[in-house]
Amino acid sequence: VVSTQSTGDAPENTADSVAAQRAWDNHKKRNDSIITDLFHGQYRSRLECPDCMKVSKIFDPLMYMSVSLPRKEEKIREIDIIWLDPERRRTRYKVITPREGQVIDLLYAAEKVSGLSADRMMLCELSQAIIESTISPTQKLRDIRDGRYSLCIFEREPQLPVIKVYNAYKGYTSYLKYFGNPLIMQIPKKEMSYKEFVLSLYMKMSRYVQLTEEAVQSEETLPFKIKAVNQFGVEQSHDLCDEDDNLSVHMSSGKPVAYIALVWDMDAKDEYFKLDECNAVDYHDSYRTTKARKNEVLLEDCIEMYCKQETLNEDNMWYCPNCKDFKQASKKLDLWRLPKVLVIHLKRFCYSRHWRDKIETMVKFPQHDLSLKKFMLSTDQNHIKYDLRGVVNHYGGLGGGHYTAYCHSVADDKWHVYDDSHVASCTAEKCNSPSAYVLFYTQQEPDRINGSSNGFEPMDVN
Fold it and tell me: How many Å apart are CA 239 and CA 234, to the nearest integer?
């Protein structure tokens, strides 16, 4: 008799293999049946607190995989990346994102084409030379104001504070006029002298601003004045150099300085600032080659979405035992133990506050040799492959519909379609349709994996 209910939560420093076996043994004690033997596998859920980095690992039974489908509506977006390396020009990409996803989906798409890790990205909306807003990875893609502002990613070091830097001049008025690309400065946590800050600032602009070494040694010889400004570009009464010649990054109110402007002398701007080079853009191959994709996806892509790391939204936060508070933790699923019969549910019905829909996307799934090796955390079952045995179809919409099924018979090694009381033979190719809703796969026998069997053999369920 098992007297206490186990959550599957692994104690810290417990090896995954030990924690997984312990959770599986407890599960089997409570669920010792042919259903468990055939249909149950196991996955690991890993949660990490964004503040204290507390990690929680839970091993739970896997009864079926309910995988999301990309929305049938996709959007191609232009996005620029401004790099930390001052010698690299701004680079322009085109990426494909779902219309109804989160901003993190856009960051992952940018990561795929650029190689820059998503956790080093700060996404902003730009209006010419001004940063209009910074966009959180958890925001909805539909919140992005398409056409009004351009999208730009700034490469940054995680955990360090950011100061946004603009170039400006006054001209013949007292109002600042902005030009060129904005950039960001990150201030290390240790104390920094004002001279060090100016030198770092110049190094960030060295590709398009040519000054002598003497010019950056003193504020009097600089061709610009460094001013604190607010988010709208209006000057603030704050001196960035304190009495000890150190950088002062906090206002008198205690708030950190978030924006500064380099206010250029008009003549010096024309002499030293190479505006064409500052605004120069390198175009990545994706800008030319990215086109709208066909309305079909691979089953492998859906499983990849199922296992992909995500950030929990505000409606589904995790309680961190260290912080004693609910957090938008990062969550990652990995497969650990595979079932004999794998059931995959394609999530074709979508609901939100703003819309509800059935996704008619064609999912291309294999008839034979489905391998989940790339999604497995444990290596014990990497050799396992699956063959398709049945497909449940749904026809219709949200208000009503009709179900049919395709099944492979081990008796005659043929596929059949079941539609109420009507049964007929069909080809295997018929199974792959936009109506496919639930897929049933069975593990291949060892001789089938080795290629010595030409047909399906009945699986031993004993």
Answer: 15
Separation CA 333–CA 218 (nearest Å): 54
Nearest-angstrom CA–CA distance, 417 and 86: 63
| Sheet bearing 224-229, strands edge to edge | 177-186, 162-169, 259-264, 224-229
What residues contact 92, with CB distance under 8 A and at least 6 apart?
78, 79, 80, 281, 282, 283, 284, 287
- Tokens standing for 255? 């708030």
Cβ atoms of residues 248 and 153 within 8 Å: no
SS3 97: strand
- Residue 200: what are its φ and ψ, rounded to 5°? -65, -40
Which residue type, as a one-letter code, is found at position 107? Answer: L
Q: Residue 57: its pLDDT value, please?
A: 92
Distance of CA 303 to the CA centre of its chain: 15
Tokens of 348: 């074709």
pLDDT digits (tens, 9 = 90+) for 171-224: 676 788 899 999 999 887 667 788 888 888 888 999 999 887 777 776 677 888
Residue 165: φ, ψ to 5°: -120, 125
Tokens of 246: 């150190």
Contact, 63 vs 40, CB < 8 A?
Answer: yes
How far apart CA 55 and CA 63 sit, in angstroms, is: 25
Residue with the larger pLDDT of the pair 282 and 248: 282
pLDDT of residue 236: 82
Cα of first residue to Cα of last residue in the chain, in angstroms, is 24
DSSP string covering 398-453, please? SS-EEEEEEEEETTTTEEEEEETTEEEEE-GGGG-STTEEEEEEEEPPHHHHTT--
User: What are the percentages of helix, strand and coil residues in the chain, rounded to 5?
Assistant: 20, 40, 40
Q: How far is CA 62 from CA 2, 304, 410, in A?
A: 21, 16, 26
Three-class DSSP category at 22? helix
With CA atoms as reference, report the closest residue to 396 among 437, 425, 431, 342.
Answer: 437
Q: How far apart are CA 449 and CA 387, in angstroms?
A: 10
Secondary structure class of 307 (helix, strand, coil):
helix
Distance CA 23, CA 14 (A): 12
Distance in angstroms (rounded) separating the CA atoms of residues 106 and 110 = 6
